[in-house]
Design a protein that fits this description.
alpha+beta; DUF1660; globular; four-stranded antiparallel sheet; 4 strands; binds zinc ion
């Protein structure tokens, strides 16, 4: 973790927000850590154990299932 993130917290890169089918996600603008916007619209770090639901897309560019 870079020092500004340790002091100020992570900052989501609003130009790189994407939707994983459940929540909005974005990388931290400074260190690239995966972040998630929760139901109260607070950005926090993505937690693999808490947030690793199978109906989420894992990556921004993952294509949907082809019909
Ligand atoms: Zn960060």
């Amino acid at each position: 973790m870079q020092l500004p993130c340790a002091i100020f917290g992570h900052k989501p890169d609003k130009t790189r927000v994407w939707n994983d089918n459940v929540d909005f996600r974005a990388p931290c603008i400074r260190c690239g850590a995966a972040m998630l916007r929760d139901e109260r619209k607070n950005w926090r770090l993505f937690d693999d154990e808490m947030d690793g639901a199978s109906n989420r897309k894992q990556h921004r560019h993952e294509k949907g299932e082809e019909l």
